[in-house]
Write a structure and sequence with these properties.
There is one protein chain. By secondary structure, the chain is α/β, with parallel strands linked by helices. It has a single domain, classed as 2,3-Dihydroxybiphenyl 1,2-Dioxygenase, domain 1. The strands form 2 sheets. The chain has a 4-stranded mixed sheet with strand order 1-4-3-2, with helices on one face. The radius of gyration is 14 Å and the shape is globular.
């Protein structure tokens, strides 16, 4: 149902470098790029993740309570992707680990403060 999620940034080159490095390990590649907008996807009919400078010209701000959750295929991949996000300059919002019996996730914020999660669910 979700086509793509868009996150705001005030520094598109810095944000693009973070997401290029982070998303390549789960098949994410740029599929659309303009002066103020870049979008990644793992392939046709896969949801996308986009970064944009706000259309209204005002500074991008972080939505409190807003989070993007990215599915991966194993708890080990959650661990690896969470570690990579932190290594690339993300900040911890809840380390990778089990959340109940059938859910495993790691939470972080990107360099702009947007909250994301990598998760695996049985």
């Amino acid at each position: 149902m979700i086509g793509y999620v868009c996150l705001g940034t005030n520094d598109l080159p810095r944000a693009a470098k973070f997401y290029d490095a982070l998303l390549k390990d789960i098949g994410g590649k740029r599929f659309m790029e303009f002066e103020t907008f870049i979008a990644w996807s793992a392939g046709k009919n896969s949801p996308g993740l986009a970064l944009t400078k706000p259309f209204n010209g005002k500074p991008a701000t972080v939505g409190n309570g807003v989070m993007v959750a990215l599915a991966v295929d194993s708890p080990a991949k959650v661990d690896a992707m969470y570690r990579k996000a932190i290594e690339l300059g993300g900040t911890d919002e809840g380390p990778a680990g089990p959340r109940g019996d059938d859910f495993y996730a790691g939470y972080f914020r990107d360099p702009d403060g947007n909250k994301l999660s990598f998760f695996y669910s049985k």
